[in-house]
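User:
Care to share a sequence and structure tokens?

Assistant:
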Amino acid sequence: MSKDADHTEVIINHLLTEVYPVLDCKIDNAIQCSKLAHSKVPEKHLVNDLLIKLKNEFHSLITYEQKLVFPSVLKVFNAKKEQLTLPNLADLLQLTRKKEEKINHYVLKIALLISSHLWKTQKQEDLVNAFTGSFATEKNIWNKLIQDKIATYACFKKHNFKNVPLVWLCCWFLT
């Protein structure tokens, strides 16, 4: 395993075993909050709906990353220079960013709704702080890692056939 792959695997394990379980627990705590459940404010239902949407989108992101993104990234990081068929990290990054944007949108809406403090919102505030802090920081680290690899891979691909004779390249492409 390459040094890049080792470092990437450490980050993946950190996300899956430390960051994501804590965030999932904070979502559950915010949903199951008795203060929210017993509140009579009209925003209660909106916050509840947003929490459920946040949970679903967050679980969707985790599943997507576990089954497709993380294995694909490790495949690229472990790839040999002569390997030509590799997953498109730019596409994977774009799809995960869309999920992250939805998550951040839900968190922002929750933050706006609880800003009036019509009930004791500590669990919802903890959730918002965790996503605006830990989640944002960890995803920035991950996304930068992938962007750097995309730049490196693009350069590698551009110069991959630099010293190969043209005749050999033509034969290779035709076979």
Q: What stands out?
A: The chain is about 80% helix and 0% strand.
